[in-house]
Amino acid sequence: MPRTRPEVSVVVPVFQEEASLPTVIPHFIESLSQQRRRFELIVVNDGSRDRTGEILDELAADEPRMRVIHFARNFGQTAALMAGFWVSRAPIIVPLDGDGQNPPEEIERLCDKLEEGHYDVVSGWRKDRKDSWLRTRVSRVANWLIGRITGVKLHDYGCTLKAYRAQVIRDSRLYGEMHRFIPVYTSMHGAKMCEVVVDHKPRRVGQSKYGYGRVFKVLFDLILVRMLQKYRTKPMHFFGRITQWSWLATVLCMAFAIVQAIYSQDPWAAFWGKAPLVGVMFFLLGCFSIMLGLVAELAMRSAFEYNAGRYWDEARRINFGPVGGEWEPPAEEPRASARAVSR
Asked: What would the pLDDT profile of 296-306 be if each residue is shown by its tens digit?
């Protein structure tokens, strides 16, 4: 394994891509070799059950700049990206899809923009996207919705091709299907970002692993991201708002019942009508919200005290050296800036 520190780490998550890898990976290496920056290509096999693992091993045997991580089983694209980010050694990290639709030739332009010094994230925008009409329209609606709710305005959240300063992404903690919200996470820690229009190729071989069912996953994840964006360190405030409005509704229901009893001149109407029952339900909702808030606060405190963040299992590594081949920065170089994602 080369001991020279690379200048850009390209992270490629793959799953069931035996048809595309024999042509896509050599093309990646050839294109990156022609660019100005020294590179390492980190390919994460997300528990593929076809010949993906064998093909990657064969390709890595002849290319020391290619490093491979094999997951023991399928953990999802978010885990694959996180594993690649954590072992990256370069000051710039660029994730890239393994299907060949994002041309690696664009990486140099994204890195040039990043090194101008004004931004921490340079996001690719597939303005002329080569996917089906329906997929493109659904993506546009999703991008608009995410930008509207989170306040982070990007045209193309779904484009994997982005250039990150390593300090804003290497130590991040992402779970589930949160990879599409990485720009939101970086913005929560002060990262500045911009967009650059990138080329997009039609898929030549293989099939997309994403169906339209993921639209609902995006909506559910968006709710979680918004909560983390606003209440990540103070979940009690979120549940406290629910309690506040619930108990206000309780007071209004009881007041309505009392007024109704006065006008009907029946004192029992204040106790046996529908309004008191609804008021009790709102009161109990407020109590449950307080309890949930306390549990969330305890979970948050525990996460800050102990947050290893790793939840995947690796089967083996290729081209990582006898002890993993991890690069450690020199003493004079800070591990992370003030914008870094919290450990």
From this structure: 766 765 665 55
